[in-house]
């Protein structure tokens, strides 16, 4: 598996350097900076620092700027990670190399693991730019501690990976990327609580958001960054179980879709 992961990482990195211009990464960097600036200007000029008293009760902090900047940065990370994992095989299909991948004896899990690591390397550039601007705009994390934050990050990456796998199945089946991915990203943006506490949502929407492992992972990571607390045991277990469920559904479903996709037309 590890040989497959390393080979996939190196191949994808070389492909990106040779085939895709830096303007692609620059576009994502601009998106991250834009999210930070929108949060800052909304707080300063739109609501003029007037935060609802319930906000502190729901989030454990009165620092809306830090809350929103963390959400914007993590939204950027989740979109990049899920999009890259989910589009991996359909990109192979579009480039005419999918049959080679399917016939090879390489580990499928290793293939996706290499894709994730390579994408994470590129995302660090985007996140770094967004966080630098965020610090200038007022991002402060005085209570963050290493172990809780590391646990939250690992949970968050796991949730993005599992959701990306299942999203990839839908993409392969429908032969569509744009509508499928943007529908999911719109739902997660609303239901997972990136820019505002989920407690403001109606109960039915809060319940709907619980089907995504990203919801609990986002709450746990944000809590560790803002308060220094370890994600709660219930939240940790829920994210792990949902992520495992997504992976257990996605991997066999993807193989069935792969076997049939060349016979559909």
From TrEMBL:
<keyword id="KW-0812">Transmembrane</keyword>
<dbReference type="Pfam" id="PF01061">
    <property type="entry name" value="ABC2_membrane"/>
</dbReference>
<feature type="transmembrane region" description="Helical">
    <location>
        <begin position="178"/>
        <end position="196"/>
    </location>
</feature>
<feature type="domain" description="ABC transmembrane type-2">
    <location>
        <begin position="23"/>
        <end position="257"/>
    </location>
</feature>
<dbReference type="GO" id="GO:0043190">
    <property type="term" value="C:ATP-binding cassette (ABC) transporter complex"/>
</dbReference>
<keyword id="KW-1133">Transmembrane helix</keyword>
<comment type="similarity">
    <text>Belongs to the ABC-2 integral membrane protein family.</text>
</comment>
<keyword id="KW-0813">Transport</keyword>
<feature type="transmembrane region" description="Helical">
    <location>
        <begin position="123"/>
        <end position="141"/>
    </location>
</feature>
<feature type="transmembrane region" description="Helical">
    <location>
        <begin position="64"/>
        <end position="85"/>
    </location>
</feature>
<feature type="transmembrane region" description="Helical">
    <location>
        <begin position="20"/>
        <end position="44"/>
    </location>
</feature>
<feature type="transmembrane region" description="Helical">
    <location>
        <begin position="153"/>
        <end position="173"/>
    </location>
</feature>
<keyword id="KW-0472">Membrane</keyword>
<dbReference type="InterPro" id="IPR047817">
    <property type="entry name" value="ABC2_TM_bact-type"/>
</dbReference>
<dbReference type="InterPro" id="IPR013525">
    <property type="entry name" value="ABC2_TM"/>
</dbReference>
<dbReference type="InterPro" id="IPR051784">
    <property type="entry name" value="Nod_factor_ABC_transporter"/>
</dbReference>
<feature type="transmembrane region" description="Helical">
    <location>
        <begin position="235"/>
        <end position="253"/>
    </location>
</feature>
<protein>
    <recommendedName>
        <fullName>Transport permease protein</fullName>
    </recommendedName>
</protein>
<dbReference type="InterPro" id="IPR000412">
    <property type="entry name" value="ABC_2_transport"/>
</dbReference>
<keyword id="KW-1003">Cell membrane</keyword>
<dbReference type="GO" id="GO:0140359">
    <property type="term" value="F:ABC-type transporter activity"/>
</dbReference>
């Amino acid at each position: 598996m590890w040989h497959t992961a390393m080979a996939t990482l190196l191949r994808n990195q070389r492909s990106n350097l040779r085939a895709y211009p830096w303007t692609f990464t620059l576009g994502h960097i601009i998106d991250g900076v834009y999210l930070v600036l929108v949060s800052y200007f909304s707080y300063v000029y739109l609501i003029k620092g007037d935060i609802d008293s319930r906000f502190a009760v729901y989030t454990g902090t009165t620092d809306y700027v830090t809350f929103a900047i963390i959400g914007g940065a993590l939204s950027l990370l989740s979109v990049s990670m899920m999009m890259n994992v989910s589009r991996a095989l359909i990109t192979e299909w579009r480039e005419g190399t999918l049959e080679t991948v399917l016939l090879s004896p390489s580990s499928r899990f290793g293939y996706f693991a290499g894709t994730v690591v390579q994408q994470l390397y590129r995302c660090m550039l985007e996140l770094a730019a967004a966080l630098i601007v965020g610090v200038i705009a007022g991002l402060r994390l005085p209570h963050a501690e290493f172990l809780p934050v590391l646990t939250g990050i690992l949970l968050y990456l796991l949730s993005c990976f599992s959701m990306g796998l299942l999203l990839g199945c839908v993409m392969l089946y429908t032969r569509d990327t744009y509508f499928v991915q943007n529908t999911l990203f719109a739902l997660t943006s609303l239901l997972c609580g990136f820019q505002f506490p989920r407690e403001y949502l109606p109960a039915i929407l809060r319940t709907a958001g619980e089907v995504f492992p990203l919801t609990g992972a986002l709450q746990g990571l944000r809590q560790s960054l803002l308060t220094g607390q370890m994600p709660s045991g219930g939240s940790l277990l829920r994210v792990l179980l949902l992520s495992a469920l997504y992976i257990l559904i996605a991997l066999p479903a993807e193989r069935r879709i792969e076997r049939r996709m060349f016979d559909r037309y």
